[in-house]
Design brief:
Elements (H helix, E strand, L loop, with lengths): L3 E7 L7 E7 L2 H7 L9 E7 L2 E9 L10 H9 L14 E6 L5 E2 L3 H10 L3 E6 L6 E6 L1
Parallel strand pairs: 2-7
Antiparallel strand pairs: 1-2, 1-5, 3-4, 4-5, 5-6, 7-8
Length: 141
Amino acid sequence: MPRTVIGLLVPVDPDLPLALHLLPDGSVAISDLLGGGLLGDPEVWVARHGADVRRVLVYRSEPVPDAAPNPRLAALADLLEVSPETVAPVVADVLLLGAGEDGADADVPPLVLATVLHSGWPVSMHVVTPGTDREAGDRRW
């Protein structure tokens, strides 16, 4: 069975819910979720909550024309105590993943999920069966 990772999509459109996605591991699935095209290197955030410190990989889509900077991403970075100089205004959808010990993509850290759930932002969940385009489920939390 192919390896999968859980990512958190933060759309630039504030009317769309944040979404958890179970993705087949690899850049193709990430690129497809972010609108296609080549992926650049992700930004790396160091997220903190008390003694819990985690690395978060931030993948961006292409900039969305006529959109304002992603307000929930900026708020989330603030809630996660990410150093402000590492957070540039982003006019795009972003996918947040964790970083494994070897630097490989990993599940979005529980610290990030807990922060999002406590924020009160709506979150949907999309499970895509690896190797297909079919969604196995869609639930709003």
